Queue: 2 jobs
Job 1
Amino acid sequence: MAAKKSKPKKASLNQPAEVLYADELKALNAVDDERPEGWKLAPQAVVTYLLGGEAPDGSAVSAKYVGNRRLIETAVATLATDRALLLLGVPGTAKSWVSEHLAAAISGDSQRLIQCTAGTDENQIRYGWNYASLLAKGPSDEALVRTPLLRAMEEGTLVRLEELTRMGSDVQDTLITVLSEKILPIPELDKAIVANRGFNIIATANNRDKGVNDLSSALKRRFNVVVLPLPSSLEEEVSIVVDRVAQIGAGLGLPDIEPAEKELARIVELFRELRDGQTADGKIKLKTPSGSLSTAEAISVGISAWAEAGHFRSGVVDADSLAVNLIGAIVKDPVQDAIVLQEYLETVVRPRKQWRDLYTAIREVM
Ligand SMILES: Nc1ncnc2c1ncn2[C@@H]1O[C@H](COP(=O)(O)OP(=O)(O)OP(=O)(O)O)[C@@H](O)[C@H]1O
Ligand SMILES: [Mg+2]
């Protein structure tokens, strides 16, 4: 009889922050400090977790977010008040990333998440019903389907609302009572869930997309808005891209390649020039493409180029492995953006001697 084959164990594609950084969180948790009720870490420790530094036991804490300390301090301080936090910014400025890490550090759980879309209705925000149970027994606590928001209220944790402004304004407004009174009435059961200490909301929204619904002023008043900017300097942005590409690539198990820092720096330089509408020296004015060409997109181009180089191009990220990926990132609108790229190629890339390889590689596929 053939031996029964055991199923190979599957590796997960993405681990939540509280699992990936469990050691750092534990080290930061070691001291007996003052922390808001329901919080796993003190506010100072949460900021150290996000921006990097040293834990009380002397171990190193890696930087998750690279940017202005004040922004993160404001975000953390907000979550300790009765106001909710709204992280706003153009796409790819680490809003979701910061939100995940804040939830991991403060509540030890970043998975309490509601993805808001145009199709999100009140049942996905407040609570729903298990209809079999509802028909058999009528409204009861067992028939109640708890949403991540309801669970967060009951257990006193953070809940994340991704892309808050994508859901309709009427649905957004269901959050008003939750945020101002910290209760969620369930009229069918003639009761209300009262939030425990530690409960709060972190929402993200991007201010570039079309088809979003403005927040009502009643709701706006209950959120503290922290705007996450694009990185201010080239060096800062290059270091973010280099670090994140290394982490993500390793997480995906991409083949080993030669260090690609130089090429990654070139992507960032190129993106920044197009985004700013002028060359780094300010001498040539450029048209800007319709996409945001954010740090996150530079990271994606880096990852794709790594995969291409590792699998098809003998392990070196070069102009050839970048070309198609760069075009894909820049040309979002096939007509307008193609013109922008053409102009950039001819006026900036071609005259730069050290970028000649890139000019040729892009011309070959465009
Ligand atoms: N300042 C930064 N510090 C650290 N990482 C950054 C920074 N800016 C961008 N990133 C990286 O960019 C990637 C994408 O970020 P994220 O998905 O959080 O963006 P977002 O603002 O939520 O975008 P969207 O509006 O499209 O949802 C993450 O891998 C994150 O690490
Ligand atoms: Mg996001």
Note: The mean pLDDT is 93.
Job 2
Amino acid sequence: MIWKTRLTQMMGTKYPVIMGAFIGLGKANFAAPFSEAGGLGIITALNFKTPYHFKKELERMKELTDNPFGINISVLPPQIKGGHHLTEKSRDEYLAYIEVALSEGVNIFTTSAYQATFIGERVHEAGCYWFHKSATINHAISAEKASADAVTIVGLEGTGFKNPLTQTTLVNITMARRLLKTPIIAAGGIGDSRGFLGSIAMGAEAVCFGTAVKVCEESPAALKLKEKWINEDIFTEDYHQKIYHLKLRDRVLPSMAVGHRKKNHSYKGFYRRNYE
Ligand SMILES: Cc1cc2nc3c(=O)[nH]c(=O)nc-3n(C[C@H](O)[C@H](O)[C@H](O)COP(=O)(O)O)c2cc1C
């Protein structure tokens, strides 16, 4: 099947599929097979201590794949202090990572977490695409007003940052299709072809996978952790409390998408079964 949406055209990918940002794991060895399999692999910039280390990783990514790939940078909300390299940064510090990616020929820039218009402006000035990820429709509307080329909206079923106004993926995508003109990327709890097709039917022009790809064969996550995630019972009270709780941002839990994954298939197998 040929998948053609405004997003496959911007990304230059075979499938309307984009890899999530992954703190800790979002490096070339994880992203390159994703791009090779026909989606848009994403290198998470803040996994690299300095723009120099990030540049080296982009060089490595280009050795591993000739297919399109993008980068992510999470702009931390002032009140959040994370681990890894998620320390507070100035605008110039964030922009230093963007300059490196531009110099390496990256064309797709994804931002998340907090206001990133200053990044979008620089990306547009360079003639590249800016996709922003939000957890609410209102933030998605703000991103459209700020001229984002696409908005990813993560539903309550997803993992990562939450907001008191976060809605489910079903509500987000159907409403966003009515309220926005900008192409939408669906995220949150999507783990197989039903979720993918449902998202496209609701009006998304691409789908972003986080949890579902972390448990794939190519993911550098430890096998034990993948097995633990795949075997997570998403219907327990304990899991329910954790996944729908706003404090989820303090730890990384598998999202509702693990309910759809009972094996750690390879990306290629995953794509073949689901989209062809
Ligand atoms: C291990 C892990 C690390 C993540 N790290 C980040 C991150 O650094 N920045 C970000 O914006 N999102 C991050 N996310 C969220 C994903 O990019 C994506 O938005 C989310 O996983 C989509 O929901 P899903 O897991 O239901 O597919 C992470 C997700 C996982 C599973």
Note: Residues 51-64 form the longest helix (14 residues).
